[in-house]
Amino acid sequence: WYDRRNIGEFRTIVDVNFVGAMGPPGGGRNPVTLRLLRHFHYLAFTELENSSKLCIFGTILKSWLVRTQGLQNMQDAMVTSTLSLYTTILQELLPTPAKTHYTFNLRDLSKVFQGVLMADPERMEKEEQVLRLWYHECCRVFQDRLVNDADRNWFDKLLRSKIRTDFNKNSDSVLGEGAIIFGDFLDPTLDIRPYIQINDMEKLSRVLDQYLEEYNNSSTKPMKLVLFLDAICHVCRISRVIRQPLGNALLLGMGGSGRQSLTRLATHIAEFVCFQIELSKNYGPNEWREDIKQLMFKAGVYNRETVFLLSDTQIKSESFLEDMNNILNSGDVPNIYKPDELDQIYNAMKGIVTELGLPSTKSNLFSAYVKTVRSNLHSVITMSPIGEVFRARIRQFPALVNCCTIDWFSAWPDSALQ
Prior knowledge:
Pfam families: AAA_7, AAA_8, AAA_lid_1
Order of helices and strands: HHHHHHHEEHHEHEHEHHHEHEH
Radius of gyration: 23 Å
Number of strands: 7
Main location: cytoplasm
Distance between the termini: 62 Å
Oligomer: single chain
Family: Belongs to the dynein heavy chain family.
Subcellular location: Cytoplasm, Cytoskeleton, Cilium axoneme
Domain Dynein heavy chain 3 AAA+ lid: 79-174
Number of helices: 16
Strand content: 5-15%
Helix content: 40-55%
Shape: globular
């Protein structure tokens, strides 16, 4: 390896193996030259067969349906219909320059079942209740990512056709009229909040107004918000995302449309801590790294549920997004901790590792720390979809797309904008 400091000298690197993980070209991934690939041995992993997906997700759903009141016969239809829906979306909703984030993978498929499992199965008495829950979770995972009414209407018709053909139900009678909303915050007095369908919109509006009043009374920066229907729906969407393990959100919309304010309200509802960096003239990569380190410390060492709110206007350097990409992928930023901070992490994780019956090695201790960080830290990133900058960032940092993406601005009705 040529040494640029000592001109004319070469360094020999020994005992190093290179491993690369790649996907096929497309969706923001560019072809890699054969001059590089010739040095590697290929291991190709093909897409899972439908039979394997049926077995995996069928087993997961079965563990939930056996606790319902005689609704176990819905297992095959729900899994088959969801897989068929997923396959159709992969074929029809392809990424384009205007729809860069139309990239779907098995994570999205698993999030549908993860959302269904959030509800209490013992409360399910009729097939219609399960179908409304399934419809809601499919909309939250797939429809929220769509950027225009044409795509959203196409997806809604597809879901309704699945209900008619796969479940032999009338979609209009099952879904009814109006928005289908699920949440766990309707009764703040309960210790264990059930994830249920919210039918009383007036009560939901009153409860959110109470939460907003509580936030304003306890905050040094009160928010004067008007919670109309679409704003209420967005609060419910954000609340659903951050209550899930490894739940992260990417909010796409214009500045001033309420993305940050509603995120703070949803964080207050969940009783989490909302953290946001404070930009200054001298704020740079060192200050950013220090903030990120303290944030992960709170989530991992002190075990605090935290929401990290980051706006695209706060990204002074693309290295900020590189660190965010690492946090979303692995829950860690390489080489960010000093030796004394690592010792503090190891001491804090000894109890957890001992309870798991694992030896207290440094690798096990740090692995337990990273898992705790990923479980407690929820990232909410707000971006504007206008311009080439957004598309370049999506291509360069694919972990952003793996967040639950909510297209924000196009969901506002004209009356609300006026």
